[in-house]
UniProtKB/TrEMBL annotation:
<dbReference type="InterPro" id="IPR006311">
    <property type="entry name" value="TAT_signal"/>
</dbReference>
<protein>
    <submittedName>
        <fullName>Sugar ABC transporter substrate-binding protein</fullName>
    </submittedName>
</protein>
<feature type="signal peptide">
    <location>
        <begin position="1"/>
        <end position="21"/>
    </location>
</feature>
<dbReference type="InterPro" id="IPR050490">
    <property type="entry name" value="Bact_solute-bd_prot1"/>
</dbReference>
<keyword id="KW-0732">Signal</keyword>
<comment type="similarity">
    <text>Belongs to the bacterial solute-binding protein 1 family.</text>
</comment>
């Protein structure tokens, strides 16, 4: 299970002010970014072997399944491998038992046709492990490239060390690998650098952060949903008493929610003249910072800024609301209290009149490039990627995520796969590592609580009414890759100081000036130079 806070970092979910295009290219000046925007993406052909109970949509609405399909269908014709494959990936669970003592891993190898030998990194430390292997004389066949863990010089690194896969995946060429063709164009854009496709993307929920609250706690003040920022403020004050608090202490994430209510853009705003205005430069975001400072002064935030995970305290009522990634995160709370279905805040205008926004997330957790090799090996590795991208409900999905029936999983009364005792020991760390390296498009599925699937689906429909996507997602800026995380972190430090009263609001302008001169203005120019004409205007 990926920790909540770490998942926010790894997915590139729409955290306020984040530089989501952190997998930058070789720079707009080199023409790489323009080439990326001109590339013909892989042809999208949805998998037709399964029909969800609740259909998805191109808007980002995720398909919902009320139970696992009764007759899992095969999505590949034959085992993909004839030779062993080495790969570097990461797990956010406890590392699994090694291959030699892990029957589930051995069963996967049997299904693949040869051994998949994984080197599994953990958090923290993955970028260091990546750099060590990159500098060695012997790269693994596959190396997961995370979207925003600070790995530098992505474009030159890919050109020097990894295989250009464009001719195998661009346009109709991808149809040779049906499960890869079932990945959406928005997912593929994140694997395009310098006008070339470098690997299979790893889709995640397209939904960004949401505020969730314990309904038992919020019932005391009339529920979580609000119509104005003043109403929310009053409810928070009533719920906070020095022992219990309305809000978790992740200030930047909470501030992201407030920004939506004040109409702040999802990272960048596209103006009528096609210029870009950054989130930090808007009056909307500045107003959200002032509002957050007002809430902090009212002592409604949990005071320990180092709290690693608010979920247990939200479940027990000590914290009333926290920020998570996407409506499907309700399952994290169910895991701690099976009786609890948390509420998801629907954005509202801060004054009851203004139009709110909802920031959609980046939708992937990076991509997995191949080391340079010959054509036969490339096609073998692509077949492996195709197998590991098998959609939900297929036989290959079951093998990858649950193992072998009667060994790692059994079917419950509703024919849903449930891990056995052996499965709970062998699967989590392995599944996490495999999912980080390769995954199908996401679905809504909670077999123990099928009604949750319906509720989450309805919540996604509500959020999509206000959806705003980062207009630069899928385009690249070399400056964003190299300097974005550093200047964003410095700006956020000042914001946290302002909210917590350590600095006055006038420190905002000085921090913004440093952000702009430190790389923000250059990022703006690079993104604007390659902004597709199809991206709509979002500001005046």
């Amino acid at each position: 299970m990926i920790s909540r806070r770490r998942f926010l970092q790894v997915t590139g979910a729409a955290v306020a002010g984040s530089t989501l295009a952190a997998c930058g290219d070789g720079g707009a000046s080199s023409g790489g970014a323009k080439a990326s925007s001109d590339l013909k993406l892989p042809t999208y052909k949805p998998f037709e072997g399964l029909r969800p109970d609740l259909p998805g949509a191109e808007s980002g609405l995720e398909p919902g399944f009320l139970k696992f399909p009764a007759d899992a269908v095969a999505s590949v014709k034959a085992p993909p491998l004839k030779n062993a494959v080495t790969a570097l990936t990461e797990t956010f669970a406890t590392p699994p038992p090694p291959m030699g003592s892990n029957p589930m891993w051995q069963a996967l190898n049997q299904a693949l046709g040869a051994e998949l030998r994984l080197t599994i990194g953990t958090d923290p430390g993955y970028p260091e492990k990546f750099a060590t292997l990159l500098a060695s004389d012997s790269l693994p066949d596959l190396m997961w490239l995370p979207p925003n863990q600070g790995i530098p010089n992505i474009g030159p690194m890919l050109e020097a060390k990894f295989q250009d896969l464009t001719k195998y995946l661009s346009g109709d060429a991808v149809l040779e690998y049906p499960n890869l063709a079932a990945l959406k164009p928005a997912s593929w854009r994140t694997a395009v650098v310098n006008g070339k496709i470098w690997g299979a993307p790893i889709p995640s929920t397209p939904f960004g952060q949401v505020m969730m609250g314990n309904p038992k706690t919020w019932a005391k003040v009339g529920g979580l949903q609000c119509k104005t920022a003043d109403e929310f403020f009053a409810k928070c004050k009533e719920l906070s008493n020095g022992t219990n608090y309305a809000l978790e202490p992740a200030i930047v994430n909470m501030l992201h929610m407030f920004g939506e209510w004040f109409g702040a853009p999802n990272t960048w705003r596209v103006n009528q003249d096609r210029s870009l205005t950054h989130l930090y430069e808007t009056d909307n975001y500045r107003a959200a910072v002032e509002y957050a400072a007002k809430l902090w002064a009212a002592k409604v935030f949990y005071p320990d800024l180092n709290l690693a995970d608010a979920t247990p305290k939200t479940v027990n009522g000590q914290i009333a609301a926290q920020v998570v990634v996407g409506p499907r995160a309700t399952a994290d709370f169910r895991n701690l209290d099976p009786t609890l279905f948390v509420d998801t805040m629907i954005p509202f205008g801060h004054d009851g009149k203004a139009k709110p926004v909802y920031d959609m997330g980046y939708g992937t957790v990076g991509f997995t490039p191949f080391k340079k090799t010959d054509e036969g090996r490339i096609r073998e590795l692509l077949a492996l990627m195709d197998y590991l991208s098998a959609p939900f409900g297929t036989k290959e999905y079951l093998v990858k995520n649950f193992g072998v029936q009667g060994q790692q999983y059994q079917l419950d009364a509703n024919k849903n796969p449930v891990l056995t005792k052996a499965g709970t020991q062998q699967a989590p760390g392995l599944v996490s590592a495999l999912q980080i390296m390769n995954a199908p498009e996401s679905v809504i599925f909670n077999p123990a609580f099928p009604d949750d699937t319906k509720k989450i689906y309805a919540t996604e429909q509500e959020l999509l009414k206000y959806a705003m996507r980062n207009p630069t997602a899928g385009t690249y800026s070399d400056t964003s890759s190299k300097l974005g995380p550093k200047i964003t972190s410095a700006f956020r430090d000042t914001i946290i100081d302002i909210v917590t009263g350590r600095q006055k609001m006038d420190a905002y302008d000085a921090a913004l000036k440093r952000w702009k001169s430190g790389g923000g203005d250059k990022m703006r120019d690079e993104f604007a130079a390659v902004l597709p004409s199809s991206v709509p205007v979002t500001g005046s």
